[in-house]
């Protein structure tokens, strides 16, 4: 019996060893990634290599089914994992299990100046991506805030390249440690949304190297970035999604980037330039996945059948195809076929705690005259909350960063949870629905009624908390549009001034990813800027207003007194938004605080400014 048992064990071991020996290198998770990539390339046909270089649906690119190589699943970030959409359209898929935690905006994270908190953010958000089966998170963003009207500034990390890089690196490291790739965006010079698909950026080499590229370089070299997204705009009159000087010259050869360059959706314009200009995965091209023959939709992409034809005709080298395919395979083995990829979790208590902690440290106290804050509710019997943002879900809108959340606690609900029946509400103004790249036409008479109602209730109040600022509507903080003015919209400036005439005890709370004018600043006692706080907005704001949390955020952008104080507006249309398809960065390196500090222009609130409830002396 014992001999039979030994024979069985020996035979089983032999079979196990034989089975291991038969596993191809590219499928062996213990083999070095470069060996896996080389082995896979040697087994793939030209058609299979080309197939993995372009989309196969709205948010996936193909694998190699014949070889068991997985596809790449992508989703928008960077503040949370986007709701599921249909395979071949922009329509919501209407799943019931794709709600997420909306984390604070990246401007809020930058305002914490806290590297360890950036790592916490990256870990939490990537766990939600991993749980949803995503391999690539389309974010974060380190585009520099050149001017205050950029509709996507809330997705970025401010005006200083050092700050942006220092905050992005730990974020990326934490995300990728969970087996999810960060796709850093938008590379490069995507400093405006106006004419973003075509505008050519004219910038000096010094400004490019000192201001607009360092944060990207730091993420490549220090964080080991796995993927990067090309921007829509042009540089050197060539689109950045297939710009040889930018992608091959700087990113891959100079910085040693070994990952994949992914186009922004619709950012690819030419087969030859895509092949030779450094693009590795083409997504969202104008066919929209649909032609008269839908089965061929994605095969008509620039980097699909047209690219394969050029290779077969000998016009494109196989070395170029192999390099691209290797970069995509490397990404697949790091993410979709990574045996150590995190299982993740969705809407966990830990994630909500991280959301609130980031928001609490990112809120910036800009004014606190007379020590009105922290708010001692014992002094007031009637607290009037005014403002559309008190009840607006600010996870909605904004373009690609829009999120479907399981829970969103509004500022009004957060304040009522602490101050109860003392809180009364008047909307005061209405911003309309969160529409993409357009604004809802609002009825003037209805808006006037809201204004008048707030004024009437103000006369009976002991304290006013105005909750306004920007939102994620078109022409506010929204992809594909820039703001039309440096002033707050929807008559907020007038409303704030009118309320301040009635009640001197007034706190202004603002949301938004950009700086804005504060012509009423001397008429109010306190100003608190919150950026976007995500799912726990209400609790986070209430914790700071009540004094449970001492505000410690510092501005990652300069707040000027007037729009014309920013250097980009000093040069007419050529400085912004551009003329004849060209915009000129004539201010050079003098972006943000560099301009204000060296040119003697006094800001309303300087870069790095932020008060607290603590009093101290140096």
| pLDDT averaged residue by residue | 94
What structural class should be given to the helix and strand makeup? alpha/beta
Are there runs of 5+ residues with pLDDT below 50, and where? 4-19
How much helix, percentage-wise, in residues? 25-40%
Number of helices: 19
Q: In angstroms, what separates the terminal alpha carbons?
A: 85 Å
Radius of gyration, taken over Cα atoms and rounded to an integer in Å: 26 Å
What characteristic shape results from the CA principal axes? globular
Major sheet, described briefly?
Answer: 6 strands, mixed
The percentage of residues in β strands lies in 5-15%
Trace the largest sheet across and list its strands: 1-2-3-4-6-9
Please give the number of β-strands: 16
């Amino acid at each position: 019996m014992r001999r039979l048992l030994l024979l069985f064990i020996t035979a089983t071991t032999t079979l196990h060893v034989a089975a291991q020996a038969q596993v191809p290198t590219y499928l062996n998770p213990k083999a070095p990634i470069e060996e896996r990539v080389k082995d896979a390339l040697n087994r793939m046909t030209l058609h299979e290599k080309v197939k993995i270089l372009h989309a196969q649906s709205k948010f996936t690119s193909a694998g190699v089914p014949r070889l068991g190589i997985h596809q790449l699943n992508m989703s928008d970030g960077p503040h949370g994992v986007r709701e599921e959409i249909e395979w071949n359209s922009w329509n919501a898929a209407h799943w019931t299990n794709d709600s997420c935690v909306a984390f604070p905006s990246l401007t809020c994270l930058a305002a914490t100046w806290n590297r360890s908190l950036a790592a916490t953010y990256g870990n939490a958000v990537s766990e939600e991506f991993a749980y949803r089966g995503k391999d690539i998170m389309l974010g974060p963003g380190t585009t520099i805030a050149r001017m205050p009207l950029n509709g996507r500034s809330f997705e970025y990390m401010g005006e200083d390249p050092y700050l942006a890089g220092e905050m992005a690196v730990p974020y990326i490291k934490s995300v990728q440690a969970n087996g999810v790739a960060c796709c850093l965006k938008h590379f490069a010079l995507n400093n405006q949304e106006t004419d973003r698909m075509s505008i050519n950026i004219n910038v000096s080499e010094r400004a490019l190297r000192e201001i607009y590229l360092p944060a990207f370089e730091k993420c490549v070299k220090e964080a080991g970035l796995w993927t990067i997204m090309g921007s829509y705009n042009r540089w050197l009159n060539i689109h950045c999604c297939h710009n040889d000087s930018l992608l091959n010259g700087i990113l891959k050869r100079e910085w040693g980037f070994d990952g994949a360059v992914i186009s922004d959706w619709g950012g690819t314009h030419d087969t030859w330039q895509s092949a030779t200009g450094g693009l590795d995965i083409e997504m969202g091209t104008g066919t929209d996945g649909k032609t008269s023959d839908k089965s061929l939709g994605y095969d008509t992409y620039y980097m699909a059948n047209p690219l394969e034809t050029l290779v077969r005709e000998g016009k494109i080298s196989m070395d170029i195809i192999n390099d691209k395919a290797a970069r995509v395979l490397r990404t697949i083995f790091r993410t979709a076929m990574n045996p150590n990829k995190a299982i993740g979790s969705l809407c966990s208590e830990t994630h909500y705690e991280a959301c609130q902690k980031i928001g609490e440290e990112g809120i910036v106290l800009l004014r606190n005259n007379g020590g009105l804050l922290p708010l001692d509710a014992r002094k007031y019997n009637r607290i009037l909350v005014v403002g559309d943002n008190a009840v607006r879900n600010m996870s909605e809108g904004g373009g690609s960063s829009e999120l479907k959340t399981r829970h969103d606690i509004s500022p009004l609900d957060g304040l009522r949870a602490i101050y109860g029946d003392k809180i009364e509400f008047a909307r005061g103004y209405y911003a309309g629905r969160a529409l993409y790249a357009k604004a809802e036409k609002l009825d003037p008479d209805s808006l006037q009624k809201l204004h008048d109602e707030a004024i009437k209730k103000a006369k009976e109040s002991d304290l006013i908390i105005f909750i306004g600022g920007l939102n994620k509507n078109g022409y506010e903080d929204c992809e594909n549009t820039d703001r039309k003015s440096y002033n707050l919209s929807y008559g907020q400036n007038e409303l704030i001034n009118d309320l301040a005439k009635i009640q001197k005890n007034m706190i202004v709370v603002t949301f938004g990813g950009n700086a804005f004018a504060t012509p009423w600043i001397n008429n109010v006692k306190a100003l608190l800027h919150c950026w976007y706080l995500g799912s726990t907005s209400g609790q986070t704001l209430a914790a700071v207003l009540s004094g449970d949390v001492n505000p410690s955020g510092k501005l990652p952008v300069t707040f000027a007194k007037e729009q014309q104080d920013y250097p980009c507006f000093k040069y007419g249309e050529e400085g912004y938004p551009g003329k004849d398809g060209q915009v000129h960065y004539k201010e050079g390196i003098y972006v943000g605080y560099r301009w204000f500090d060296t040119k003697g222009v006094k800001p309303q609130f300087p870069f790095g400014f932020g008060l607290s409830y603590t009093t101290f002396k140096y």
